[in-house]
Amino acid sequence: MFWGRFSEEQAADNKLKNHAEAIEMPKGEMYLASCINILRNVYGYVFSVEKGVAVDKSGSYLPLYTYPTIEYLTQFDFRKKRVFEFGAGASTFFWMERAAEVVSVENNLDWYTKLKAQIKPNVKLIFAENTDFPLAISKQEGLFDIIIVDGFGYRYDSAVQALSKLAPGGCIVLDNADWHPNTAAKLKAAGLLQVDMTGFKPCESHTSTTSIFFSRDFAFATLEQRQPVYGKGSKWINSEEWDKTQL
Fold it and tell me: C-alpha angle with apex 187: 177 to 98, nearest 5 degrees?
């Protein structure tokens, strides 16, 4: 197969083999180049790596979850939701722009100090070290619609504390779930529905798994009328004929 833009006349009679601007390559390599282009230019992966922080192609902050998780979460309307984070960072800025209230606990003092100067009024940033870190959520008033377990250390203990502070219909996000199978098993055993979202992340050169644990009555409103929305780099096709009864 050949890569490039050519007229029918140029492509006739096997002329492309001698065309200076034609690139001949196997179909699989051509498709791989297309996939890399989507990751580079649509997701903004290379820009994120060079910048050294999780961002999209426009520079807006992203949480350091897998891309499938990010795309799934951005479908929902969080404007009336309360979010709690074990572990603050770029994700705090992501939630800050979407949720009604964000409470984040951080156990790295330098990182806490840096973030403190950049947060908006709807964010409450807490510094807590050692065993005070997983217990920070229990000291907060009320329940949370979304709880993120993504801090440095204490993943299992944080998840345990999260269970008693999860609002009806809410969900818990466990990042690096593939590294913390005991924590994932604990959340699943509590009756939550586990959905594993494996894929690439901003800034990282390997795949990982972010898992979402849903309450069985989860029903967050979406920003768009349809769900799912078209993903990044997807074909905008609406199969109207197949998407209705044909019986």
Answer: 70
